[in-house]
Amino acid sequence: xxxPAAANVLGTMGAVCWSIQLIPQIVINYRRHNTTGLQPTMxxxxxxxxxxxxxxxxxxxxxxxxRIQPQVLTLLSLVTWIQCYYxxxxxxxLRCLVMVVPVICIMSAIQAGxxxxxxxxxxxxxxxxxxxMAAASATxxxxxxxxxxVDVYLYRTVRGISFIFVGIDALGDVFSLVxxxxxxxxxILVQNEPEASANHLRLEATCLLP
Length: 210
Known about the structure:
It comes from Neocucurbitaria cava. By secondary structure, the protein is an all-alpha fold. Helices cover 81% and strands 0% of the residues.
């Protein structure tokens, strides 16, 4: 179905949901003063996933919302990640800053370098570097989700996850899935997106089970 306006609006709404999804989790961590059950490995993997995703979205010249979304995802994932050390390992605020600021700088430098490299590749009509960036991002996101599955299996319950976060994340999945229907054409990356989002929705359904 070729309705570019609908695809753009729905895709943007999905990007907005995925940009703000971690805010409720950050807030609930702050109010509880603990992050029990929240996996720092998951948050770090999501933070790194934003690096190749940002490269892909910028190199493909997507709209501004899709270019900003990976940067917000990385930043909020790092905030959530460092909360785990602040509340659970009792790190000082200064130690947290000393740890997280260099990570941000490294991620920014890597992304900037990759944007230039992938841009040069596109000028030479080389498609595989862009595909590699998208695949790397999807792999890191999936690895983060699987890490939470391990915790659910070990403890037979869902611990530490904000259900508001889960709901907003699921809404982003739905908007993105529907936006694919209105695309004028589907490439291999877009064709794989529904399955990836469906797998994510299954995890979120697991989180809502008693």
